[in-house]
Amino acid sequence: MLSAGVFALAAALIFSGYMAGMTRLYSDPQQYGLWYLGVSYGGVLVLQDTYFYFTHRLFHRPKLFPWFHQGHHRSRHPTPWTSFAFDPLEAIVQSLFLVGIVVMIPLHFITLIAVLTTMTMWAVLNHLGLDRLPALFPHHWLGRWLIGPAHHSIHHLKYTEHYGLYFTFWDHICGTQDPDYTQNLRIPFPGNGET
Ligand SMILES: [Zn+2]
Ligand SMILES: [Zn+2]
């Protein structure tokens, strides 16, 4: 509930900033071309994933963990309620990203709403638990690069792996991807040795 309050304050700040002409939010979809709506949407997701990955790793430092991230890890087996269960300080850090992008990057209102909707739905999805998506998902060529419930459930069990939000590439690049991730799911699937 507290983190919902923090995100609501951030939304109020963004809206007041817009009214005061301090943001780069715009309302005419043609202003930067229609192509920019899609590109800025994808770009913001990549930026947010990067911001989340590195702040998340920082929060796992022993000195910061009790202040910033312990609240989220109270759920060892996550449920959708876990998706926005943040300590207030973590909620502030995550909401500052949203305040930062509307000040720095030209974004159409629809793009911002699409990003917020994606963020909310993806967070709920990631906290559904181990077996809520079809077994194919983590084994699929695209599924390997997207974070889903099985991937993030492992983070709630093993704190040293799987720090990303949307995509797995930072986990791959920084060596925090569980090498046996797909094999250890123990889901019958041709190709993982358990047919
Ligand atoms: Zn964590
Ligand atoms: Zn989580």
Structure description:
The structure is a single chain. Residues 188-195 have low confidence and may be disordered. Strands 1-2 form a two-stranded parallel sheet. The chain is mostly helical and 195 residues long. It has one domain (2-184). It has eight helices and two strands. Residues 56, 60, 69, 73, 155 line the site of one zinc ion (ZN). One zinc ion binds at residues 56, 60, 69, 73, 155.
Terminal CA distance reads: 44 Å
Tell me the major beta sheet.
Answer: 2 strands, parallel
Please mark out the parts with pLDDT under 50 across 5 or more consecutive residues, or reply none.
188-195
Number of strands: 2
Structural class: mainly alpha
Question: What's this entry about, in short?
Answer:
The protein is mostly helical and 195 residues long.
Topology at a glance:
Layout: H1 2-19, E1 25-26, H2 34-59, H3 65-68, H4 88-104, E2 107-108, H5 109-126, H6 149-157, H7 169-173, H8 181-184
Parallel strand pairs: 1-2
The structure holds zinc ion (2 copies).
